[in-house]
Write a structure and sequence with these properties.
Length: 612
């Protein structure tokens, strides 16, 4: 993977706290390292000319405005190392080194304006394990001469292709020159110093398989100053790292990937499958003439219908029923199997429209009421059978959306979204209290809280949620945020989440005692995304997991696959979760409620087999 260096040059505006925030951005976007630059103003302005060259007045004003002392840079360097970032420094003069001679930098950078300063290069080349030289304004033969004259070695030197404009016109970036460097300096590390207005050319560099990309970073690309427009903010750096960390999958994967949830949902909603033209009785043989194609695609298609033609039906189907696998097979859950599910505190998700059907097929004792924002706004307790509520235990899963266009966000700067979200929570609490009034049991509420507006303030966001949860506990309501995947499926597409999706955050959640619902599928996906060990993170933080959603997963976006088709068993996570018998485990087989609970029953049979 190409190492991304975040240049924290002059975009801090001479403000130490802004520089800290820039380091935070580099850490949050998984940069390899950060680089600062230093000029001793006394040395730089020692020979000021009365009549400066074109543009020098502007540059000098920027340098003075954006000055940080060497003590401040050393504090920033220490802060960066605590964030597990490599730390480098650009120096423009040998004289300036004395301010840093007692600090061990991971690398030094010789900037383009002084890459012809042999004294500086020769002095710095042995002062760190890595030295980076940027060759803006130099042609191939000049680069070759500098390397030879300074006796540079490839083992500890990075050659950076650079165009010294701020910003660089994308058409002038001359990225093909990287091929020239790669071909002629095979012993050296090769990189690109990107100064374009956007991150796109830096992403394009990934196809060259270079070692480093350096990119200036900023809190706001629209700020006044020479460097902001040619820098990247959090959003751009995140986009670059998505491509960088997944480059092989995006660019080199030749095998077609398995369909993800968003793709399946879109095909299901927009596609067609076979439906019955008329009533077909149990024992009859299925004939093509009995069928027609209709929306949505929830049944058999031309890909698999031939296998079932002339097969005998195991149950009656009505006109306009979809033709599905379940009508050809008997799937029954025995009393002993139900007993095992109850012993391990399994639960099933239900909706107002399907609870009776699910309960008739699988009459266990725990259920999780999954409600849309429409369900909550139209909820009437009398629509549910009183005996059903009285006999069983419930949790409630709030919707992800507060309306057709927006995800729930209790802390949104948008007043309307915030008001709608809080109103839904209040109505959900009312439903929980209505259920408790009938069966006498507490009803916990599960919610996805993915709307982190400012990733730099992630801990503050968690603190706000903890405060909300504490206030609800005073009302005897348990609210558990759900663990999320990094790549979540919202509005039929992929949306990146920033909260409750990085396993490293569990350390802080445990510190503030913020209990959560662990979605096993999401947890596997998030660990895979961040390249972390599933079992290690589960074991270290299991004390804060007070509720489970259980389904399998694979890779970084293969959510909700059937148990055994992903990584939950082989990782050991499944066994660990089952060892926690007392905690409720909601079986969240994706689309398990369809096709007469075909996939629910398939997963249950797999679980029972493993438990026996």
């Amino acid at each position: 993977m190409t190492k991304l260096i975040a240049e924290i040059g002059i975009n801090h505006n001479g403000n130490f706290l802004e520089a800290i925030k820039l380091v935070d951005i580099a850490s949050l976007t998984n940069c390899w390292g950060v680089k600062f630059q230093y000029r001793n103003l006394n040395n730089y302005f020692l020979h000021e000319q009365k009549s400066a060259e074109l543009g020098k007045e502007i540059i000098d004003k920027e340098i003075k405005k954006n000055y940080l002392s060497h003590q401040q840079i050393l504090r920033l360097a220490n802060y960066s190392k605590k964030k597990n970032l490599k730390v480098g420094l650009s120096l423009f003069s040998k004289k300036d080194y004395k301010s840093f001679k007692n600090y061990k930098f991971d690398f030094f950078k010789i900037p383009s304006p002084v890459c012809h300063d042999y004294e500086l290069i020769s002095f710095l080349k042995n002062k760190a394990k890595l030295n980076i030289i940027s060759f803006g304004g130099k042609n191939f033969f000049e680069i070759k001469k500098i390397i030879k004259d300074c006796n540079l070695k490839g083992s500890n030197t990075v050659l950076l292709h650079c165009i010294s404009n701020y910003p660089v016109n994308e058409l002038n970036s001359n990225l093909g020159f990287l091929d020239n460097l790669l071909k002629n300096f095979k012993d050296f590390k090769i990189g690109y110093s990107s100064h374009e207005k956007t991150i796109l050319n830096a992403i394009l560099c990934l196809t060259k398989n270079i070692d480093y990309v350096e990119r200036h970073i900023t809190l706001d690309k629209n700020k006044d100053g020479l460097d902001h427009s040619s820098s990247s903010d959090f959003k751009e750096l995140s986009l670059y790292q998505i491509y960088n960390e997944n480059f092989s999958k995006i660019y080199k994967q030749t095998k077609k990937l398995m369909p993800n949830q968003g793709e399946i949902i879109n095909i299901q909603n927009l596609g067609t499958s076979y439906y019955a033209k008329k009533k077909i009785n149990k024992g009859d043989f299925l004939k093509k003439k009995f069928l027609e194609k209709k929306h949505p695609c929830v049944g058999l298609t031309d890909l698999n219908i031939e296998k079932y033609l002339n097969q005998r039906l195991c149950k009656n189907i009505k006109k306009n029923d979809p033709i599905t696998k379940s009508i050809f097979t008997e799937q029954n859950i025995s009393k002993s199997d139900l007993g095992i599910l109850e012993e391990y505190n399994f639960s099933l998700p239900i909706r107002p429209r399907d609870y009776k059907n699910i309960y008739n097929h699988i009459p266990i004792k725990n259920f999780e009421l999954h409600l849309s924002f429409i369900d909550i706004n139209n909820f009437k307790i009398k629509d549910f059978d009183n005996i059903f509520i009285k006999k069983n235990n419930f949790t409630i899963h709030m919707p992800d959306y507060c309306d057709e266009n927006n995800i729930i966000d209790f802390f949104s700067p948008n007043f309307i979204i915030k008001r709608k979200s809080i109103t839904l929570l209040k109505k959900t609490i009312k439903i929980a209290k209505q259920i408790k009034k009938i069966n006498g049991s507490d009803v916990s509420i599960i919610i996805s809280l993915s709307r982190l507006n400012n990733p730099i303030d992630k801990h503050k966001y968690y603190d706000k949620i903890k405060k909300l949860i504490n206030n609800l506990k005073k009302l005897s309501i348990n609210l558990y945020p759900q663990w999320l995947p990094v790549d979540a499926w919202y509005f039929g597409g992929n949306v990146k989440t920033r909260a409750f999706s990085n396993p490293q955050d569990l350390h802080y959640l445990k510190k503030i005692k913020l209990d959560i619902c662990l979605d096993a599928s999401h947890f596997i996906l998030s660990c895979n995304f961040h390249k972390l060990n599933v079992l290690k993170y589960y074991s270290n933080y299991k004390d804060i997991f007070k509720h489970y959603h259980l389904s399998d997963a694979k890779n970084t976006d293969g959510e909700g696959v059937l148990i055994g088709q992903g990584e939950i068993i082989e990782s050991g996570l499944f066994k660990k979760i089952l060892n926690d018998k007392k905690t409720v485990k909601v079986l969240e087989t994706w689309q398990g409620h369809l096709d007469e609970l075909y996939n629910f029953k398939k997963d249950i049979r797999k679980i029972i087999k493993l438990l026996k």
